[in-house]
Amino acid sequence: MTHLNFVTLDVFTSTPYSGNPLAVVFLPEDPAHALTQRQKQTLAQEFNLSESIFVHPVTEATKRTIDIFTTDCEIPFAGHPTIGAASWFLTHSANPADGPGITTLATKSGDIPISIQDAASKYVAAQIAHNTHIHGARFGVKELLRLHPTLAPFFPKDDVTFPLFSVVKGMSQLFVELGSLEALAAVTPATGGDFVSSEYLDEGWRVGLVCVYFIVRGVWDDVSGREVIRARMMLGTLEDPATGSSASGLAAYLSLTEGRAGQDLDYHVVQGVEMGRRSDIGVGVSLDGEKKIEKVVLTGTAVSVSEGKVLVPQA
C-alpha cells in the first residue's frame, strides 16, 4: 500500500475555514502494512497542523480508536482532535459502520464516551477525563508582563496575580483574566518565545507544558445571542484558534471556585476571533453534593473541508 485516505476537518465551527483544522488519516486495514510511530510523525509534520489523528481499523462495533500527534510528538489527549473525531464518526462519515451507534472513542488517555448532543446542528459531546488540581503558587503580573509586555497599559498595579490549574496531570493552564476586548486584542506571542515554567506547578504535577489562557468574561456575542467567555491561548510564540483542553480546564476551575454543590454549569467559550478563525467551544461541568467535579463534557461541531490520498512515508 503506497497511499492512505485522509480528510481534513475544521473543528469547533460549522463554517469552513474557521475553527481549528484537523487532519484525519485512516490507517491500513492489513496489519502487515501498519505504520510505525516515525511514519505517523512524518505525516503529522507534513500536514503541519496543531494536531493530526490516525484512525485504527475497526475491531469493536461501538468503539473507534485514534492516535493523536502534534508536529513534534504523540500526545494522549487533546480537545479539538477528540471533538473532531467524534464529529466524524457520528455525523460525517459515509461508512455505514459509523454513525450514532458509536459510543466510545479510545485514546492513549483512556476511553472517552461520545454522543450526538443535537442531531439538527450536529453538535457532539465527549465526556473527558479529569483529575483537577488548583496549584498553590500564583503567577505575578511582573512575570506576565515580561512575557507579554503589550499588556502593560492594562495592569497599572503590580500586585495582581493569576491562578494555575491542571484539569489532569500534564495538562495545565495559567488563567489571565482581562477587563476588556481591547486588552484581549493587545495580547501578542510571548517575547523571545518563552514558556511559563512547570516549576510554578506543585510538586508531583510538574509535567507537560503550561498554556496561557487569556479570557474576558461576560461578553455579549451577536452570533450566538448570549453572553460568552472570549479567549485566546498562547504557548510561547504559538497561538491556537481553539483549545478544548484549556476551555475544559477553565470551566472546571470556575465551577470549583464559583459553583455550588450539586450544580450543573454550562460555559460557552469563543476563541480564535483575533486570528480570523472563530471557534465555539461548549463545556458542561457537573458538581456533586460535596462540590467535587462529577463530569466534564466538551461539546462542539466540525465541518469537512478536504479529502484525498497521502503517500505513505518510508519506514
Key phrases:
17% helix; 18-stranded mixed beta sheet; 315 residues; globular; alpha+beta; 5 helices
Task: Describe this structure in a few short sentences.
With 315 residues, this protein is an alpha+beta fold. It has helices at 37-47, 79-92, 141-147, 181-185, 244-258; strands at 3-11, 20-26, 52-55, 63-69, 74-75, 104-107, 110-118, 123-128, 133-140, 161-168, 171-177, 209-221, 226-235, 238-240, 264-271, 279-287, 293-300, 302-311.
Order of helices and strands: EEHEEEHEEEEHEEHEEEHEEEE
> What's the number of extended β-strand segments?
18
Helicity range:
10-25%
Number of helices: 5
How much of the sequence is in beta strands? 35-45%
Structural class per helix/strand content?
A: alpha+beta
Q: Return the average pLDDT rounded to an integer.
A: 96
What's the alpha carbon Rg, rounded to whole Å?
A: 19 Å
Low-pLDDT sequence parts: none
Which overall shape is indicated by the principal axes computed on the Cα atoms? globular
The major β-sheet equals:
18 strands, mixed
Compute the separation of the termini in Å.
12 Å
Descriptive notes:
The chain has 315 residues and is of the alpha+beta class. It is 17% helix and 42% strand. A hairpin with a 2-residue loop joins strand 10 and strand 11. The longest helix has 15 residues. It is globular. The mean pLDDT is 96.
Secondary structure blueprint with pairings:
Elements: E1 3-11, E2 20-26, H1 37-47, E3 52-55, E4 63-69, E5 74-75, H2 79-92, E6 104-107, E7 110-118, E8 123-128, E9 133-140, H3 141-147, E10 161-168, E11 171-177, H4 181-185, E12 209-221, E13 226-235, E14 238-240, H5 244-258, E15 264-271, E16 279-287, E17 293-300, E18 302-311
Parallel strand pairs: 2-3, 4-6, 11-12, 13-15
Antiparallel strand pairs: 1-2, 1-18, 3-4, 4-5, 6-7, 7-8, 8-17, 9-10, 10-11, 12-13, 13-14, 15-16, 16-17
